[in-house]
Amino acid sequence: MLTDLSIAAMQAGLRDRDFSARELATAHNDAVAAARPLNAFIVETPEHALAAADAADAALTAGTAGPLAGIPLGIKDLFCTAGVQTTAGSKILEGFVPPYESTVTAKLFADGAGMLGKLNMDQFAMGSSNETSAFGNVVSPWRSAGSNRPLVPGGSSGGSAAAVAARLCAGATGTDTGGSIRQPAAFVGIAGIKPTYGRCSRWGVVAFASSLDQAGPMARDVRDCAILLKSMSGHDPKDSTSLDLPVPDFEAALTGDLRGKRIGVPKEYRLDGMDATIAALWDQGLAWLRDAGATTVEVSLPHTRYALPAYYIVAPAEASSNLARYDGVRYGLRVRPEGGNLADMYEATRAAGFGPEVKRRIMIGTYVLSAGFYDAYYTQAQKVRTLIARDFTLAFERCDLLLTPTAPSAAFAAGDKVDPLEMYLNDVFTVPASMAGLPAMSVPAGLNGSGLPLGLQVIGPAFDEAGVLNAGYAIERAAGFAARPDRWW
Amino acid sequence: MSVDAATVKRIAHLARLKLSEADVAPLQAELNGIIGWIEQLGEVDTAGVEPMTAVIPIKLAWREDLVIDGDARDKVLANAPGAAHGFFAVPGMIE
A43: Cβ–Cβ under 8 A, 6 or more apart, which residues? Predict the structure, then answer.
């Protein structure tokens, strides 16, 4: 089946003319249309995929094809796409059709990729389960052994995760603020990398927490992540925090040879009451890395336990500021109470347009930034953030990369976590690297007792995506993860 | 520190979120749960620690002070819920 192919295999097949880009796009458009019970897409754009395919077929014949010519991708609905509705999963942006293209999608399309549609997500990327989208929950293609209960795909890039795992697309864009690429990748048994902060331009990506938001690829294997990341990366003058550095050939770095590499094991990540299967898989991962030539060393990240509470000050604070723009004036929803004035319109529009989790975070952010509380909360959180980043800097004096679990559990059932705090704790292993702006990826490494995927996380020093990907590649080769969800949709 | 109902209403007003009376109590309970949890940051000794301002230290780029984009009025207004005469249109502010 064409939809089973990796991106690397698609590139080879297109180059050898084993199949046309149009055949590839059609197979994926059909898979998308047949998978609506997953609710992975908010908008389907088969015509975009076909147009890119036809252009790719012509370019392949002419010898002018770009590296992603004819590869159909899913695009998270946080990326503005010219002429195609972009909502960030929120009613407040329903009907918003950007007149411009985000830098990341523009780069992918310039390299020849097509778009199958806009992927569902937690509203404004706030969530870890895809239960906060205004367009309905995304359902994971996975099910626990012997159960039909709908499971969450993780979040916030849950539509991306579900679509890639269900073979609706071989790759998708995600974004990661506190784990939104890595945790859903782990939940559905795929790979995903959050690069160094600034590696991918944020221009045209709907903002959540600007000092944390990073785009990155999600795909079924590490090589495909490397291929996509190369295309998505690069300096962009339109994003003042964009890194002005050459983009390495991430794919060429995939040797699986880790001789001379020291892998750090942060002892603070070994939580009391940790799931035994996850603890065992972590040890297995370290053994695999040693088999690939690495040595392992215990390191300490003493401020780990403060990363989550600091994140839940910094991220809501930035969100409350970024989301002030949704006021019913320039785009999106407008609700004007009968006889109401401008202020009434603002309040009514925002009350009707934002979901409960978004409102909760705007309230928290507004509170911690309000007069009298700013220093106690926001300034203190930014100081703790300095300490968290310093922990990593010191650890990387003793090791080259870190290995940890990606999430404290496998995917849970929709509706299982109703307390916001309990949901936040799901990001305990992913948030610290986000707070320090470091590259980190999740690689599928095994299944739990219920047959659900578990991921391991590789964290690297700033700018070393190539090292992270190569360690991920070594794990992937050793794990030989081949499980896939049985089709029920 | 816990927030009371009046604080919830004040914060909602600052955030321009209309709350019904029925919204206040549940939101107050949720906010107190979250704020109570984030307050553990107070126990971290941050004496002499600078607050983070840039997660990856980079030098902000300079560019010539030139108009490099624009002339896109109709595109900008195309998504507006209300537009008239080439401007965004909003309900009256002054009686």
Answer: A77, A84, A85, A117, A118
A299 touches chain B (CB under 8 A): no
Residue-level pLDDT at A58: 98
Total domains, chain A? 3
Which residues in chain B have Cβ-Cβ distances shorter than 8 Å to A421? 33-34, 37
Q: Does B35 touch chain A (CB under 8 A)?
A: yes
DSSP string, A80-116: -BTTB---TT-GGGTT---SS--HHHHHHHHTT-EEE
Q: What is the 3-state secondary structure (H, E, C) of A255-311?
A: CCCCCCCEEEEEHHHCCCCCCHHHHHHHHHHHHHHHHCCCEEEEECCCCHHHHHHHH
The A residues from 409 to 438 touching B (CB cutoff 8 Å) are 419-421, 435-437
Helix (H, G, I), strand (E, B) or coil at A118: strand
For residue A425, what are the contacts with CB-CB under 8 A and spacing of at least 6?
A: A308, A408
For residue A202 the two structure tokens come to: 């944020």
Q: Quick one: pLDDT at residue B1?
A: 64
Q: Tell whether A189 is covered by a domain.
A: yes
* pLDDT tens column, A262-290: 999 999 999 888 999 999 999 999 999 99
Q: Does B19 touch chain A (CB under 8 A)?
A: yes
Q: What is the pLDDT of residue B92?
A: 80
pLDDT digits (tens, 9 = 90+) for A134-165: 999 999 999 999 999 999 999 999 999 999 99
Q: Are residues A253 and A269 in the same domain?
A: no
Catalytic option among A157, A180, A201, A434:
A180
Give pLDDT tens digits for B5-14: 999 999 999 9
CATH architecture of residue range(s) B5-43: Orthogonal Bundle (1.10)
The domain of A434 spans 2-258+409-479
What is d(CA A320, CA A356) in angstroms, rounded to the nearest whole number?
14
The catalytic residue among A20, A90, A133, A156 is A156
